[in-house]
Write a structure and sequence with these properties.
317 residues; binds nicotinamide-adenine-dinucleotide; alpha/beta; 6-stranded parallel β-sheet; globular; binds serine; 42% helix; Rossmann fold
Amino acid sequence: MKKEKILVIGASGQIGVELTLALRKVYGGSQVIASDLREENELLKGTGPYVSLDVMNKEMLHVQILRQNITQVYLLAAMLSATAEKNPHLAWHLNMQSLLNVLDIAKEEKLKKVYWPSSIAVFGPTSPKVNCPQQTIIEPTTVYGISKYTGEFWCNYYFQRYGVDVRSLRYPGLVSYKSSPGGGTTDYAIEIFHAAKEKKSYSCFLNADTRLPMMYMEDAIRATIEMMESPADKIRVRTSYNIAAMSFTPAEMATEIQTHIPDFTISYAPDYRQSIAESWPQSIDDAIAQDDWGWKPAFNLASMTKDMLMNLSSSQG
Ligand code: NAD
Ligand code: SER
């Protein structure tokens, strides 16, 4: 049987570092090539090969895929919601062209599988706020959301028309301690932990009662690998799957942190990210992912908070 050879694009980012490490555990260090525009992340060093790669350079991407005998691509390079609003055209160009480059090469070289993440940002103010279903009114108002929703239809198109086995998840905001977040509206839920540990206070860029869907990185990585390893006939959604774990507000997260750090205080100074957050649902219905490939989260707000604080303590020595 042909061994898998995986290329992770955007491997030095918040998800990329942890996904690369997890894929290396499953497939072996040498079988998973990490790549990014940025330098190799410290946590990846010594765990497997790294190549410097700009996904926008289609020729070089094609050469790497052939040279390394790549069978699967995980495409994580993108501009996230908050950064994208500052440069909408650049965000559209990166988020769309990177996907089209990968899908074209996957079609031409008959790659076995492609992974590309979407986001709960596809939903807009007219989508249901609570338990937002897989299929509903979807009218995103951010350039990030527009690019993700369009990308979902490109994935579906390449699957239906050319048989490219491309799979996708609509991640909620992801909370993690290993690598820094890359400019999203949900980044407060990571910053708050560092601030709580370092200075026992945090000024939040969202209002106290802004409820958003969130997930711990460990669950997100497991969801990704479980979905990618499912037989193709289990993957009935070829746009992108809703997945969920928990929903909370900044005030609720602060209260949970206070159970561990009683003198932690939070203040609120909402900025332009407030209106992005308000355009998204508060919670997500992921019944179809549960039915199709057995998705089930392991972490809730309490267990995630405990794990984050424990790991930040040990990493700070
Ligand atoms: P990130 O910004 O932390 O990482 C993206 C990485 O891509 C960076 O290391 C960056 O250097 C790299 N990159 C940018 N342009 C590149 C290029 N031209 N060529 C090669 N590499 C390039 O983002 P992330 O949080 O790890 O997100 C990864 C994916 O998951 C994105 O598609 C994002 O939209 C999606 N997503 C993330 C979240 C989240 O909460 N983190 C939620 C929903 C969806
Ligand atoms: N966490 C991401 C963001 O805030 C959601 O896709 O942009």
